[in-house]
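*** Protein under study ***
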Amino acid sequence: MAEQNPSAPTRALSLVRRSVGGVTHVRECQPNRYTIVGNHLTQHRDLSLTAIGLGAHIQSLPDGASIDIRTLAERFPEGRDRIAAALRELEAYGYLERVRERTPDGRMVTRTVSYNHPEATRTRRARETQPVQPVREPEPVRPVREPRPEPADPERTHPAAAALLATLRRDDDRLLLSERDVRRLAPAVADWLERGAAPDAVRRTLTANLPPDLRHPAAFLAHRLTALLPPPLPAAPVSSPRPAVVPLRNCNGCDRAFRSPTPGARCRDCRHAAASVAA
């Protein structure tokens, strides 16, 4: 029997020998400062790598942290356009939801909700909204349940934007969107319309030069809506008021037409002649 070396790193050798190729994980216990991120995000087949990394970062932040484009661009080197496109991707696949709300002082603000498992949240909400079968009790008295408020529907808020998205398939059948994708993208289209872009111009921008291998139209449209967002229209210049036009009148002395603000006046020649006679 061969002599064993007690100082050899048996665990490390075991890991190396078992690794034919690919990644080998060395896992350490993390009692604090860690975040549980699901493989449905980290191994998502349709999200870009930037969107996956940004989604994991957002899930690691505490409630109330700022995740607007400016704040994230100051934190990461990807730049505003790539970060904005990644946020659109996460919103299109349910990991983020941006809700417009009115503050007590009348201002409109955007509140962002992050979902660490969108599919599980949708399943739970669907289960909660199912009608509850009443339980038969010996007494006929039943508790009165308050009606659950319905969530705001973005399609109702932006009907023109939703209609534009739903009819993109008339230009190219690959742009067939689900109702969920239409609701997610409608606020972005509404931003274009509010900035003065005509619906036909928005349609041409979204459908022009489509890639031949388009497989994920919702993510593609979310990127274009963010990267090509036009600036707001400048305010129209205020035109100065036109000066008042002095009307034409007939001179009381020679009946010649001249301009005068008051009726019954005489022209300049008649005034000069009258002044010479008086002198």
Observations:
- Residues 8-17, 149-156 have pLDDT under 50 and may be disordered.
- DSSP finds twelve helices and four strands in the chain.
- The first strand starts at residue 96 and ends at 102.
